[in-house]
Amino acid sequence: MTKVNYYGHGTFGFETAGKKIVIDPFFTGNPKASLAADDLQADVLIVSHGHSDHIGDCVEIAKRTGALVVSNFEIIQWIQNQGIENAHPMHIGGSHDFEFGTVKLTMAMHGSMMPDGAYGGNPCGILLKLKDCTIYHAADTGLFFDMKLIGEEGIDLAILPICDNFTMGPDDAIRALQYLNPTKVIPSHYNTWPVIEQDPHVWAREVKAKTASAPIVLAPGESCTIGE
Ligand code: NI
Ligand code: MN
After folding, report:
1. Span 2-217: which CATH code?
2. First-to-last CA distance in the chain?
3. Region 117-131: what's the mean pLDDT?
4. What are the domain boundaries of the chain?
5. How far is the CA of 24 from the centre of ligand 2 (A)?
6. Distance from residue 181's CA to the centre of ligand 1 (Å)
7. How far apart are CA 98 and CA 160, in angstroms?
8. Considering the entire predicted model, what is its pTM?
């Protein structure tokens, strides 16, 4: 069984087979964060792209916990320049088998500049193949038709942005589900700031009406379980 923890915005944690994996550890400066960066325990930190609401507290948490950082090649170089040694570079289309599961980086239609203006490479989505389930965290992206290829991997849980303005909005997230066809879906990356206000419950009703996926709406601090 895998426990899914929602920490607010696009920040999710997965507890599986005794390991804690966190995607996009954004706590400091996140008005919806359900805990402080200093209170997070993590074995693995996966970063989708360089924007500050995704790289977040990655360096500080990695220094404190010793967690392995996984991201694209450019972001890992930036992280290593901040003194982090336990880091694994990958890139889009590549998979790697870790002790906790397999990570594959996927494309994302977005930007990836680092907070200090450094080049952050191309932004990524994350396909996480754990022992009991496959999770696709789309991170920040617009809709793209190649989501159909990602869907062919067999997704148990998709995490999709619905915020509009910076990423796909609710309507395109419904279209994304038709390409991805996950068993379950959690909306993310909304209501953090006024410009990205959305009603996830209205969206969940649309998901039920128009797709075969089961929506799960989590408030920051809430959890659910998937897998066996
Ligand atoms: Ni972004
Ligand atoms: Mn973002």
Report:
1. 3.60.15.10
2. 5
3. 98
4. 2-217
5. 9
6. 24
7. 24
8. 0.98
